[in-house]
Amino acid sequence: MNVLIIAAKEIHQAIRNRWVLAATLLLAGLALSLTFLGSAPTGNVGVRTLDVVVVSLSSLTIFLVPLIALLISHDAIVGEMERGTMLLLLSYPVARWQVLLGKFLGHLAVLAFATCLGYGAAVGALAATGSQIDSDSFLAFAAMVGSSVLLGAAFVAIGYLVSALVRDRGTAAGICIGLWLLLVLIYDMALLGVLALDQGRSISASVLNAMLLSNPTDAYRLINLTGFANVSTFAGMAGLAQTTSLTIPVLLTALLCWTLLPLGLAALAFSRREL
Amino acid sequence: MTSTVRVSDVAKVFGRVEAVRGASFTLGQGELVALIGHNGAGKTTLMKLMLGLIRPTSGAIEVLGDNPAAGEFAGRRQLGYLPENVSFDPALTGRETQAFYARLKREPVAKALELLDAVGLGAASRRRVNTYSKGMRQRLGLAQALLGEPRVLLLDEPTTGLDPELRQTFYDIIERLAARGATVLLSSHALTELEERAGRVIIMNRGIKVADGSIDELRRLARLPTRIRLKVAGLASSEMPPWAPNDAACRRLNGHIVEIDAAPERKIELLHRATAAGNSVEDVDVVPPTLDELYAHFLRQSEQAP
Predict the structure, then answer these.
(1) Chain A interface, mutation test: which of B13, B20, B49, B53, most A Cβ atoms within 10 Å?
(2) Non-local CB neighbours of A188 within 8 Å, separated by 6+ positions
């Protein structure tokens, strides 16, 4: 009950602050431009447009959704402490884990709303312009939207963990930018570099799998680029898709762990905090 | 009298600062207690300890049957708190804020919104909190603290930023709550205001409780002189009247007023002597030591003690 009251307030605030509007417009704008501009190289003949959209949009999501998630979550705890509102909230009959979980549900709802509506706009636009959308493509698209929300959840949880550990908002923002750069950009480059140097001598397939699972953005990428046969053709990943042992359930579990583990640690850190 | 708040031998250390040292007291139902002390004397720390916002380094606290340090919070439904420098989420209106806090306490929202009128927020309650002045935020802070007939009210500097009229309303409200059995603990610098209202005063200095009792008890303990001011007719400007005692400090104030510092038990005797001497005394004022003076006295005393 307390959790829902707090979640409702977070949503209310996000609507007031125009977070919801901004995130939805941003995602919708990018999804629409990718849908119409992105199909230029492939042309419109005989190609299942929505599959192309899934490939390009999921690559975009990897950059954008973690960024939005960290932006709304990094000051959830430390920011409220600095503003002094946490002091009053915690004098009410609520447990600290309820505060955290309530905020999580609220932020996740905002993110899910923005993603579904923003990306949904792309499908709507395709349907409106008369493109053929078969059920396989639609399934892959729905999975992309769902896993994007899950990716967002993981980064919201990571943002909370940072927020529960640091002393001021500036530090939280700095660490979150660093984490974003690391997980979204640097990790993959470093991984490629290591693989190229190693030439397959000491890094076995299972080590590589473990390395891919230990970054939520890679788990997300694999779900969307290899998970569906119709999409992996366009992603140039068809070969990989047939041989990889990282199946969708495994990848989803990894993303779920990336959400629950930081969230649990954040709750633990928050419960120990003095303010 | 049932106790609502029990603080036993509590100490709280922040790094190298001992914010509270060995404080013990029990607050009972219906008590209106003033917690006074300098900035940094440990008043806010004590309230935060009672709320479980921080944990004591040693000692134990019980508030409405809960141990706040262990994260128990069932009793907080009947607890109101107004922090020093209260702040709210700026994007919400006063009404939305009050409704949110009412839901957390499971109080009917309609009743909670009536409190906004009681503290005089009125039409401003439909505006966003970021447009509020300090006084208006303080009013909203009071309204949320009063939610749901609290049995314990912890008010940290509640009257700062309130205009005199609202101060009066505020004290009326908390006196009514105390009369109905609520424990009110309020910290303040406005000692003159508290003097008439607080049934009990706890004085803190550098984390140590230096005095605890009703104002009369503190006066007895402090043994500060009562000032007797007599308006005397027909007295030369530097002359002392013949009945002035030799063993108490006497001085002349502007023109024809004689002020005598009387030890508490000699008050009546001195008054007798003054009035028995004839008709020259035209008026008399008896000023017992004020809370300001008592406070200064106990602070001096605790500073001198090792």
Answers:
(1) B53
(2) A215, A217, A218
B181 located within any domain: yes
Contact (CB, 8 A) for A163 and A76: yes
- pLDDT per position in chain B (306 positions), as tens? 688 999 989 999 988 888 999 889 999 998 999 998 888 888 999 999 999 899 999 999 999 988 888 888 888 889 999 998 899 999 999 999 999 999 999 999 999 999 998 888 888 889 999 999 888 899 999 999 999 889 999 999 888 878 888 888 888 888 998 999 999 999 987 788 888 888 899 998 888 888 898 888 888 888 888 888 888 877 766 777 777 777 778 887 777 788 888 887 888 888 888 878 776 788 888 888 888 888 888 888 888 875
pTM: 0.88
> Do B236 and B210 lie in a common domain?
no
Domain that holds residue A60: 2-272
B81 and B14 belong to one structural domain: yes
Range of the domain at B237: 225-288
What is the domain count for chain A? 1
d(CA B65, CA B72): 9
Domain end point (choices B197, B219, B241): B219
Q: Measured between alpha carbons, how far is residue B153 from residues A198, B41, B148 in Å?
A: 67, 20, 11
Question: Is residue B158 domain-shared with residue B27, that is, in the same domain?
Answer: yes
| Residue B276: other Cβ atoms inside 10 A | 9
The number of helices, as runs of H, and strands, as runs of E, in chain A is: 14, 0
Task: Look at residue B119 and tell me if it is in a domain.
Answer: no
Q: What share of chain A is helix, strand, coil (3-state, %, to 5)?
A: 80, 0, 20
- Shortest Cα distance, chain B CAs vs residue A167, angstroms: 15
Q: B188 and B231: one domain?
A: no
Tell which of A21, A92, A271 to mutate to test the B interface (max B CBs under 10 Å): A92
| Relative orientation angle of helices A135-165 and A248-272, to the nearest 10 degrees | 20
- The verdict on a CB contact (< 8 Å) between B53 and A88 is no
ipTM of the complex: 0.87
